[in-house]
Structure formats: structure tokens, C-alpha cells
Amino acid sequence: MNQLTKALTVGKAVLLVLAIIYVGSLVDFIFEPLKSLTGMILIPLLLAAFFYYLLRPLVSLLEKKRMHRTPAILLIYVVVAMLILAFWGGVWPPLKYQLMNMINNAPALFNLLDAKVRELEQSGFLAKIFPGDSGLLSHLTEYLNKGFNLLTNYVSGLFSAVSNFAIVLFTFPILLFYMLKDGEKFGRVIVRIFPKRFRNRARTILKEIDAALNSYILSRVMVNVALGILMYLGFLLIGLPYALVLTLVAVIMNFIPYFGAIISAIPIVIFGLIESPSVGIWSLVIILLAQQIQDNIIQPLIFGKSLDIHPITTTVLVLGVGNLFGIIGMLIIVPVYTVFKILAKHTYHVFLKEKWEGL
User: Mean pLDDT over all residues of the chain?
Assistant: First the structure.
């Protein structure tokens, strides 16, 4: 009877949560201002947290050199500002030129791709690779054109959102400064919130979360930068058009586990095929070779197994979140899941282990 009562209680709680979600979906217009406000707060917080883990080792290194924390942070800010100016003067002009040129020439490029596909169909080359009905391939450029338009609209909306929320650009450095300056104090303040008997456990949880996020962010950035260098050099070697833009897209998308590499490879191979079939084939070879070097040489040295997440779990998380929250959700889901996994593990050990294992 006791177990039946517990089961009914859990069932009621689940139904209540589902009912709240359903009612919330009916009146979601009420929550739109709240969502906008949350976005304005969440984006600078995420950026600050990301760069906090990137820059914290530098702050610690300067402190070991007997420099006080605040001057160390200010020195790093000056160096970062110089790097941004160098990027703005050296990298941004060709990057912007390639991006605008790619968008403006998209219709002509897809017409050229369509002509090449038809030429391959007439020569019988596609029939050898895809025996049987290849009617689907005749609509390839139509699907790609639609996909490119969607991607262009998404990127335009993203840049528009960033420009509209100029406040992000001002609040993010301020948040980052105080996180670098007082990051350790935040942890101590959080621990004091808990009752005394839970403080050791809270301290352990914070250390585990901090170690997991630190390992994931640092290693992922180093791996992706190494991958980007390999790919860019290879693309320059084969004469791939828009090499800088396509490499930057590949580096960003590679933060998405598994699917990022596939998503970024599609436009690279397409633009390679538009240039010539040999460039398309060689671009695919370079992608596969760079991924193999990353997976078998660079990643084991840098990344290791910092996050104990099964590939099936990662795949389900990325697919589910991508459907609901788009690319931003896919980028942050792994560290978010890791945090909740650590919290759930300790919650189970503190509150539920004895009760559940005693049933």
C-alpha cells in the first residue's frame, strides 16, 4: 500500500507538470517579454562563463608571477583588445568580403551546381554511383537552394539579434571581469547558503562542476582550433573558394558533438563541387583526414575522457535540443547536461539512495 501511495504521488506530480506545460503553451504570448529578458541576460552570462574558463588559467599564471589579480585581468583585457584590433584589421576584411561575395553569388553558384549535376547525370557518372532511379538527384540543387536560403535567413537574423542587443557587448566584459576577479568567492557564498550539514557536499558538487566545465571548454577550444588550422591549410592547398568562411563555420559547428562535423561538411563539399569535381572530392578527403587526426591524435592528447557521457546519450540530447532550441541549444547542451548529471547524482546519494534501495 505504501508503494502504491508513492506511485500515485509521483503520477500526480507528473500530471501537474504536464498540465502546467500545456497551459503555458496556450498563453505563451504572456511569457514573450520574459523570454526576451531572459535572452538578454542569458547570452552575456553564457559568453562570460565561456571566456571565464578560457582566461582563468592566464590569470592564475600571472598571479604566480606575483602580479595582483586586478592588474592581471586588466593586462589580459589589453592583450585581448589588441588581438581584436588585429583581427578587425587583418582577418575581418577578407572574411567579410568572402561572406558577402558568397551570399551575393549564391543564385549563380547554384545554377552552376545544377548544370554540373545535369552534366554528370547525362554522362552516366551518377548512375554508376547511385544505380536505379536518380530522379531525386535532379532536384538536388532545388533542395540545396532552399537550405541555403534558410541558412542565410538564420544567419541574418542572428546578426540582427546581436546588433539589436548591443547591451550584450557592454555587459559581457563587465560580467567577465567580476567573474575572473571574484569567481572563487561566488563558490564560497553559494556554499554558505546551504545548512551546515550539507556544506561539504555542496562544496564537492561545485568542485566537480567547475572541473568538468573547465576541462570540457578548454579542451574543446584547443581541439577545434587545431582542426580549423588543419582544414584551412588543406583548403588553401586545393584552392577551395571561400576557404576562410567555410573553415570558420566548421570550427564553430564542431562544438556540436557528432552532427557539427556533418553539418559543416555539406556546404564545404558543395562549394568544392561547384569549383570542380576534383576540388569537391579533395575537400571531402581533407575533412575526413582532419577529423581522423583530431579523433586519433589531437583529441586523446588534449581532450581525453573529461566528460563521461555515452555517445547515444549525446546523440539524443543534441537531436532533441536542436529541434527545440536550434543551434544555440545544440552548442550548450553537453555542458548543461553535465551540470544536471552531477546535481542529480549527489541529490540521489543524499536524499533518495537509502529510500529507493530499501524498496
Answer: 74
